[in-house]
Fold this protein.
Amino acid sequence: MKQLLFLFLDGVGIGPPGADNPFSRHGGSAFRVLAGDQRWCQPFEPRTSAEHLVREIDATLEVDGLPQSGTGQATLFTGVNCAKVVGRHFGPFPHSKTHGVLDDENVFRKLHDLEPAPSPSTAFANAFPPQFFDASRRRVTVTTYTCNAASVPLRDISSLRAGRALPADLTGATWRRHLNLDVPERSIEASARTLHSIAREHTFTLFEYFLTDKVGHRRIDTAPADLLTSLNTFLSSLLDTLDPAHDALFITSDHGNLEDMSHTQHTRNPVPLIVYGWAAPFFTEATSLAGVTPRIVAALRSTT
């Protein structure tokens, strides 16, 4: 069985090199491998082969202003230009005008239509702490809204303890130190193996890594260099597990942010689109966030 693992990196654009761009000096070897032996900086030269595709895609969606997560992610996960639906960029949460699109056009629902009922083989690998499931306090993100709309289960602390989900910080340190939750301490390498194990059990798996956006906004006390070192370790370990003939690792983002630390706002830079594995040829025509979901569906339709 062939699988597609979607690693969504929130807030990662491709910007010019320089002192304010941490990808200039701190990308690491796994970033270079994934980008076809180049930094995640402009110029980001396209690479195309049967099992590896590298390019940049547009995140502005032909709308003025700075791209935002609400409309950017809704576009990414549906193939519909949700910034145009709303009439502007909006975020961080889903705009009410995009609810219908997310209900009917989301990538999970489209993939479920390809697969035999009643057990669609899709997964969202993030674990959520008990506080998240308190409905009175919850702020629904685009990813969680999308999962709820397609009846994709959200994984909880029991899944994390059982090694069947990943914390957003990859190690669980945030759960232990800031939420005072009893969860096992895991290495970044172990989390990469866990994600690969989840992906091997499903046709399509999504994992959302949003610390990149939080560091770009300076909302957590982590240096960009330290974050990229940790993420490089994760990517390197993940690459070690992959068989490109059966596994496809797909990476992109919703908008730029981390690549310009001279401010705390988003950017209008393009974002990376990287496919490592069998699905690479299906993404050659993607030019913007709106082109992602149609290519995911086409790639996985070819395997049914």
In short: The CA atoms of residues 169 and 211 lie 7 Å apart. The first helix runs from residue 23 to 26. DSSP finds 13 helices and seven strands in the chain.
